[in-house]
Amino acid sequence: MAPAEGGRGAPMVITVEAIKFNHDPAGHTTDALNIRRNAATFVNVPEWRRGVTTTPEQSPAAYAKRETAGNTITIQASFRSDEPGVTAQIRAIDPDKNPPRNEGGGCGGFIVWLIRRFLWAVLGNVLGEVVEKWATFNAAGGSGYVTFDLRDLRLPDVGVGPHITTWQWQYRLQAGAPWINIDVTTHKTYVLLEVPKSPWQQAPYNAGNTQLPWTDVLDYACIWAIGASDVDAAAGKVTAGVYRLGSSLVTYDCPGGGSTHYTDYSSAFYCTEFVERLGGGLGLGQYVNCTDCATFVTTFANILGCDLSEMTLGWMFALNEMIAIGSTSFSLPCAHPPDDAGWPSFRYHEVGWKGPCSNDGYVFDGCLKVDGDADPSGGPPHVPLLAVNMRHGATGDLLYRDRLAAPGGRPNCSPDCGNVRRRTVA
How far is CA 304 from the centre of its chain? Predict the structure, then answer.
């Protein structure tokens, strides 16, 4: 906040009191999406409040690129003046947009300037600046909520990602007068490709709807898919992000016979516990199976606007060698040479799926890598291949079916149209 000469001849103080990003729950084409933090915690509006909000993470907002494209995005903000009845023009600029160059800093100063520019381009403000508007303060010194347009947005130009929006708020009492700095506010802004798809919802918008998109999930999905500019690329990056968890956090459940741990098979995804695991906590333990991985991929991709489902494949089909999540080399699942050759077949397999329930559907498999060479049923050397937007194919197409299943098992490795689902988050 900063003083100015008011009508009394004494210094006047104007403060920012609150900021709403999601000020219209039905208006995701012109403002922020309906979100919550996790299953237990709702995101209250206004997202930023004086004396309450101290970090960007406490003021989250998510925007869908496709639905907001070409539209004027608005926010609402309220202010307070210690001089009732005054009228002031108010705006907010991006102080990080053009960081000053330290001309006297030599090479080191130039490098610091380049780093600041790079960080701003990748993770900085995407909401641009707040267009100036006149606000009148009532007898109690309050302005009420004022609706502002945003300009110079970078939403159309960036891909998926988390960003920090910083605004330097300013005011003046007369048009053409110098601007006076008041508050600086910071906000965490998530850029999504489209409005999140099922199991995520936008309605009903209330604290009891646990299927509103979670910022706890966006924190990971946006990093895994950072920079993706279309839904296939985003889903592919999420698939790779899930598979990479095998290097440290999860591994295929060989001791339990390939049981699921983070779903109940039919309808629920224990997302709270999975996020806990992602954060380094215990969660529901290290073991996962294909159902778990398909659910991770689908749920985390769909919050970005992708449109995947969890598809069950086949029944009792023989396998080629693979690299299951948590493993480092090709083998049959759960092999422990020289005593245990591994499992020769899967009772079923589950994957992230896009498109029709037919051989023309596309697979996103975060549970394993298949052999990408010309003879996936042959011996080494093998070519590790993560199935990302790979058509399932018919027997003999040398696509996903042929790479997962051994020749004798390929007829049984078909999509099961009675077992397509999207599990609710809990």
Answer: 5
